[in-house]
Protein: Putative GTP pyrophosphokinase
Amino acid sequence: MTDSVERREVTTDQPGQLARRGHPEAWHEQYADLNHFLMVYKFGLAEINTKITILAEELTHRGSGNPIEHVSPRLKSPASITAKARRLDCPLHFDDLRARIRDIAGIRIVCSFVSDVYTVANMLTRQPDVNLVVTKDYIAKPKINGYRSLHLIVEIPVFMSDRVVAVPVEVQLRTVAMDFWASLEHKIYYKHDPDVVPPRLRDELTAAAEDAARLDLRMERLHREIHGPRR
Ligand code: GTP
Ligand code: MG
Structure:
């Protein structure tokens, strides 16, 4: 990427508006820049996704049971990139966005049991080409609302024709029970104005997260009693 591309402001979150204002060429040019900017994140995501697929298949073949229930990779949309940049007061330039927004590429790995979350996280982060940058363990220390998940920011090298780019990817690992709660909480409440939701309902959502955590413990115990610890 050249410097001129790097420094150009991103205004393509509302391409329709630009086009309507009569700048179709400007829109195409910026759209191409944005696609170029996002391309390495797409590749980084593909690299991590492949690693997870390999782990899941190999563990299945090893006969010790596949700890991964499902995986969903996602690339942040231009609209959410610009919205987050505004929230962070981050200038809308590619190099600032690259430095400040670390979850442009994200992958959610939903595991069967809590111990599987840590097993998979370790299997991924001990690979020599995976650089662990940040760990946020919301399982050991849940958020105040009860949200639980293990969040990692890892960097993975992407080999382009003329350079290697270390691409950050946000990896969210959680159990099915944590995923069930987080998906529904997201629909019900997440990022809504806290003032419009009565505290009683907020407390009830938090209590539901604790129910889910108890269910996790119980299912893990049942699994261990029947199958013994995973090898
Ligand atoms: P974002 O700006 O939302 O990316 O948050 P952050 O940069 O402070 O990072 P954090 O690790 O706290 O959260 C990252 C992501 O985890 C979010 O984008 C959500 O996908 C998920 N998440 C975090 N907190 C909650 C929560 O309370 N409820 C739900 N449903 N998801 C959450
Ligand atoms: Mg995020």
